[in-house]
């Protein structure tokens, strides 16, 4: 089981967190997503997902991965 | 047709605007709602709605009317 953290710009509230969680949750292999607008972090757990897939999902939700 | 403005605290993004618009749009007599997180304003148009109803709807959405 992999656990990866992403730093994300632009999340300002709980709705933003939900949008990111929904979109990233659809990536194949992802079993859990925790987003925090306070810290700008998105923590993804699962098996077999790639950084590219997670980054694309976060952008699809309307936000930007900064590292 | 009445047009009324409300100053609202706590909207931080477009999702917040949508939440307010959805909730206030359900008030009887309201025909239009425009919310802006940049200015913190909610503009309500319609006929026969009361400030109390709009304020209650905004609070139901999770925000606070400040004037």
From TrEMBL, chains A, B:
InterPro entries: Cu-bd, HMA_dom, HMA_dom_sf. It holds the Pfam family HMA. One of its GO terms (molecular function) is copper ion binding. SUPFAM superfamilies: HMA, heavy metal-associated domain. Residues 2-66 form the HMA domain. Gene3D superfamilies: 3.30.70.100. GO terms for biological process: copper ion transport. It comes from the Bacteria. This is Heavy-metal-associated domain-containing protein. It comes from Corynebacterium humireducens.
């Amino acid at each position: 089981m992999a656990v990866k953290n992403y730093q994300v710009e632009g999340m300002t509230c709980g709705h933003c967190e939900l949008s990111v969680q929904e979109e990233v949750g659809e990536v194949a292999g992802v079993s859990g997503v925790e987003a925090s607008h306070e810290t700008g972090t998105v923590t993804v757990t699962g098996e077999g997902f790639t950084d590219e897939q997670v980054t694309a999902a976060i952008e699809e939700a309307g936000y930007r991965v900064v590292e």
